[in-house]
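Appendix B, record 7
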Amino acid sequence: MHTTVKDTAFHPRLVVAATLAATALLGGAAYAASPGASSVSGTSQAAPEAHLTLQPSSPALAACFPHAGARVDVDLTTDAIGKDRFTITARGMRPRTDFTVFLIEKPGAPFGAAEYIGDFTTNRRGRATNTYNLIVEEAFAFNNETHTRTDLNSVGVWFADPKDDNGCLGAGSPVTGFDGDASAGVQMLNSGAHVLP
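Structure tokens (predicted):
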């Protein structure tokens, strides 16, 4: 895994909410509808771009990490070169921690179909950035048994190690399958009501 860390001028909206342990344990259900900014821009001379802002997935996580958030920038170049460039820049996160990134059907629990696209690791200040080359604009899951297609237009970020959310949620927080070894913590961030094209 190659991760570079840099400072940016991105400042996510502060979230102030009451801590409800039962809600936090769901790892994303509470804030699934929280707004995250999204936009698509482009001209005929430059590749179009999409932008999303990710926010904490529950009131408990927002209380533990009041400055947490991430910005996703996507160069939409699948039609031109067969892949898009997806960059995520996070700040206010737990320092020196691994996180996994997914394209998902629904931003909050139970999330629906999901595609694991990569990782990032925060520095000592809780900041990180990483870039993945993959198809984003046309990302989907296809079930050949039912012949159903599911678009994956939301973004979620999970604690890669289930122990890493314990400082906020306690030792009884759930273990989820959102990592390559099928053992991850809860969802830390999601894109809320806004979606990728």
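Remarks on this record: Confidence is low (pLDDT under 50) at residues 1-26. Residues 28-39+48-190 form a domain with the Immunoglobulin-like fold (CATH 2.60.40).
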